[in-house]
Structure formats: structure tokens, C-alpha cells
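Quick check before the chapter quiz. The format below is the same one you will see on the exam, so make sure you can read both the input and the output lines.
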Amino acid sequence: MTREAGRRGGVNSDSQALLLAAGLADLAVSTVGSALGTMRGLLRRSDATELAGEAERELVARGRLVLDRYAGVPPAHLEILAQRALARKAAGGA
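Here is the expected output.
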């Protein structure tokens, strides 16, 4: 039973870990190779300077969006309710 629990489809856990690591390494190498090919193609373009400037502006805009989304602390709900109650009281309302 213990021997069967350690096996998965005829491959023991050590072999499976090795196969998983090898698969991840192959994926990383192919991804890096593809990215380098893309970069070579971009560097051969005549408008590489304009393209780099546009990419920089886009990254800055994306950075602003991320900071606005996560850095801005929303006002406290109870504080808003208290301010509304004070405004109603000052206006002579209920």
C-alpha cells in the first residue's frame, strides 16, 4: 500500500519531481529564446527610439493606474456617516 501511494502512473515521486523541474526549465528556456527573438526584431526597426519612448509612456501610465488602484485609501464608512449626520444636524434636519 505504501509503495502504491508513492507512485503516480508508474513514476515515483523523485522521478516526477525531476521531470517537473526539467519541464519547467525547458519552458523557461523556450520563453527566454522567444523573448530574445522578439527583442532582436524590435531593435532592427528604424523607429526603435519612438517605440521605446511609447513603451516608456505606456509603462508610466500603467504604473499610475496601479498606484491609484491600490495606494488610495478609501474614506472610512463610519466617518462618512458621521459627517452626513453632522451636516443634517447643522441644517436643522432630523
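If your answer matched, good. The chain has a mean pLDDT of 81.
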